[in-house]
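Okay, any thoughts on this one?
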Amino acid sequence: MRSLQIGDRPTKLAQAVAELGRIDKTIHALTYIDDETKRRRILNQLNKGEDRHKLARAVFHGKQGELRQRYREGQEDQLGALGLVINMIVLWNTLYINAALEQLAREGHDFTSEDVARLSPLVFEHINLLGRYAFSVPEAVTPDFIALRIWSKMPSSAFCSVAPQHPSP
């Protein structure tokens, strides 16, 4: 890095690298304006990132989304726990979406790979994020899922497989 700057002024090499960066940025801006498929791909990726942040905010609501630990290790623990919970939600949703697709295929429903590509495991409206939960694991854990039901006939209270025992204070 020292070879790119002499005193307060950048060297000729540093100026050349900066110009290359500007050229690349200009090419990206022009292709973004010109190429509709590129704009859609970028928008899809941005939406995925926003959906992940939306899920994180919903899970991390207890302290209004603020890290309250004073020390870095405590903050890292909080963020690690948040990441673990988000990963568990994404895994559950992925497995459940897969089971739903398999059931729809067995029932003879047609769907395309484009339809499946639009599904997201980052949804959380069906998960009760409030309350206290009691988990009882049966002696023989099987990979069976909760019976898939017709969603239009389900009451809104049925969207969580584990109901809270007592609301949080």
